[in-house]
Design goal:
Blueprint: H1 2-38, H2 64-80, H3 82-85, H4 89-92
Length: about 100
């Protein structure tokens, strides 16, 4: 009777080991497929070269230096156009009807 129980335990351990190996291999294959599908494609493009596909940015980035420079230019031009705003709107938007 002890020999039968020992064979059952050995068979159960063998089945558990096989199930663990199959599960690990499946997990490894799924991880490889997901990691390959998630990583972005990299292109080797130099300046002036036409891109083979339409490229889009992966995130929005604000260039604060250029934005501040544009703001300063806007404020300077606004002070320049204050003289135009002193002209009545009827002279600027004359209707020809």
């Amino acid at each position: 009777m002890a020999a039968v129980t020992k064979k059952k335990k050995t068979a159960a351990r063998k089945q558990l080991l096989i199930a663990a190996v199959i599960g690990f291999c499946t997990l490894l294959i799924v991880f490889a497929l997901v990691s390959l599908s998630v990583t972005p494609v990299k292109y080797d493009i130099s300046v002036g070269e036409v891109a083979p596909v339409s490229l889009t940015a992966s995130r929005d980035v604000i260039d604060t230096v250029s934005t501040n420079a544009d703001t300063i230019r806007f404020l300077i031009s606004r002070s320049f156009f204050k003289t135009i705003h002193s002209v009545p709107l009827s002279f600027i938007f004359m209707r020809t009807a």
